[in-house]
Amino acid sequence: MDVITAYFDNLKEIIEKVTKTQAKALHQGAEILSDAALKGNNLFAFGCSHAGLLALELYYRTGGIALINPIKAPGLGLDVDPATMTSQIERLSEYGRLIIDNQPIASGDVLIIHSVSGRNTVTVDVALRAKEIGVTVIALTSLETAEQVTSRHPSGKSLHQVADLVLDNCGCLGDGSLEIPGVPEKVAPTSTAVGAAMLNAMMAQTVALMTEAGAIAPVFVSANLDRGDDHNKAMLAEYKDHIFYMGHSK
Fold first, then answer.
1. Which residues lie closer than 8 Å to 165 by C-beta, 6 or more apart?
2. Which of the ends of the chain has fewer CB neighbours closer than 10 A, N or C?
3. Is residue 70 reached through a cis peptide bond, with omega within 30 degrees of 0 on the bond before it?
């Protein structure tokens, strides 16, 4: 069995499905993001454990818009030891609300939340608290998974049921995509690869819309290009009021 070819074939099939079924939602997401940015509002991204990888993918990224601010919270990143703590912490009640209340996020802002299942308490609390203060929530999830698992949130709701806009990564139940004879569990998850493609496509459309509106969208270039450092430094300075991931640097 050529598992490598099978996996790439799976990715191609899923991306084709995403292109056919999610294009409208991705365009809507880009419109929401560009409108917020043009109005001077702020953009954020959040996810727990591996889902958080896509929040990191979107910020301080070559070819990416500089305005995406990742929301990082203690215990929810893959730098935690033991890693199993992340699965326990993302089920804590009220922690998600605490996370939002300690972010520079406000009415009119936009929050992208990635969660394959959308079932865990922290993820739902983050979405609900953000919406309470007037933030627009864009969810990236797997509807096939989310609709077949039970919410762990006290409300009984999952992320896709509370978000303002839902992007379906078109993945399979549980995210593993390949069956290998003799192996009881599926291997080769698709959510990270497909989700990154979806979000980068949406961000590119956001840049296009901002440009069509007459704005100059702040896009990072590689720091390994000769002009990269100067370009990025100037851009970070120009948009400093909307960028919250620079710590205390001047």
1. 25, 28, 29, 32, 136, 137, 138, 139
2. C
3. no
- Report the alpha-carbon angle 43-144-100, nearest 5: 30
Would you tell me how many other CB atoms lie within 10 Å of the CB of residue 170?
Answer: 22
What is the pLDDT confidence band of residue 136, given thresholds at 50, 70 and 90?
Answer: very high
Nearest one of 76, 135, 125 to 105, comparing CA atoms: 135
Q: Which two tokens stand for residue 239?
A: 């948009």
Q: What is the pLDDT of residues 167-183, one digit of tens each?
A: 999 999 999 999 999 99
Dump pLDDT digits (tens) for 15-64: 999 999 999 999 999 999 999 999 999 999 999 999 999 999 999 999 99
CA distances, 181 to each of 25, 94, 186 (Å)? 37, 43, 10
Q: What is the pTM of this model?
A: 0.96
**Is 164 exposed, middle or buried, given 0-12, 13-18 or 19+ CB atoms closer than 10 A?**
middle
CATH numeric code, 3-242: 3.40.50.10490
pLDDT reading at 13 higher than 60: yes
Q: Give the pLDDT confidence score for residue 131 in this predicted structure.
A: 98
**Pairing verdict, β 176-178 and 165-168:** unpaired
